[in-house]
Write a structure and sequence with these properties.
Strand order of the largest sheet: 2-3-6-14-8-9-12-11-10
Helix content: 10-25%
Strand content: over 45%
Number of helices: 3
Number of strands: 15
Largest sheet: 9 strands, mixed
Radius of gyration: 17 Å
Length: 237
């Protein structure tokens, strides 16, 4: 998994919104026309302090259309072949730019509608400012998908019960918390999770939190499937 490089390149690629996006959206996405949509590999849109990105970064990926009415109401139609390997991570992210210990709170709430088949997870992807550490919070998963690394046992933190994993993708450390039981809506105390990683486990220092992303890491969605974010937001201070 080399998402650190693809995330960085996604920030550098210009937004592209092909003229056919609206037609594809109506054919394969939500019933209503959206404020913005894109079929571009790294099609991006900024709204309300958040950045949305189609982020089709994996090898052998199929077509994908991202749409949004706002940072908190967006979704994606994705048709990814059942060939194994992550194909995309369409997401919305908010920049933080604060060290863990300087934050009084950092939390997020979400509500999604997702397919009952395919292979994917709905997940937060949190990066530090140097892209040395990646923290993933899996809220639900379907199909043959699993996190990097080895199990470190279970923990209840941030308002949820998880199984924790510690690993590396060859470029950076990856800490994954996989929720014990799927949920399509909830609130996560992200700061509590980060402090658990810092103080209880000693896996993190007082790193600067660069970005909190939320989206769908899609391995397969053969025939085309819809992933809808009904609401999403990040608050910090």
């Amino acid at each position: 998994m080399s998402r650190v490089f693809t995330r960085l390149s996604a920030r550098l690629w210009p937004a592209a919104v092909p003229a056919v996006a609206a037609a594809l959206l109506l054919a394969a996405g939500p019933a209503q026309a959206a404020t913005w949509s894109s079929t571009a590999q790294y099609g991006s849109w900024s709204n309300g302090g958040y950045d949305l990105n189609n982020d089709v970064w994996g090898g052998g990926a199929g077509p994908q259309t991202i749409w949004a009415n706002s940072y908190s109401n967006w979704g994606v139609w994705s048709n990814q072949p059942n060939t194994g390997g992550i194909k995309s991570y369409p997401h919305a992210g908010r920049g933080i730019g604060r060290s863990i210990n300087s934050l009084s709170y950092l939390s997020s709430s979400f509500n999604v509608s997702v397919p009952g088949s395919g292979a994917y997870e709905t997940a937060y992807d949190i990066w530090d400012s140097g892209y040395h550490n990646e923290i993933m919070l899996w809220m639900n998963k379907t199909g043959p998908v699993g996190p990097l690394g080895t199990s470190q046992g279970t923990v209840t933190v941030g308002g949820h019960s998880w199984t924790a994993y510690k690993g590396s993708n060859g470029s950076n450390a990856v800490f994954s918390l996989v929720r014990n039981g799927n949920t399509s809506a909830g609130t996560v105390d992200v700061l509590a999770v980060l402090k658990w990683l810092e103080y209880t486990k000693g896996w993190l220092g007082n790193v600067t939190v660069d970005n909190v992303q939320f989206g769908y890491e899609i391995t397969s969605s053969s025939g085309g499937m819809n992933f809808n974010t009904n609401s999403y937001g990040v608050s910090f201070g």
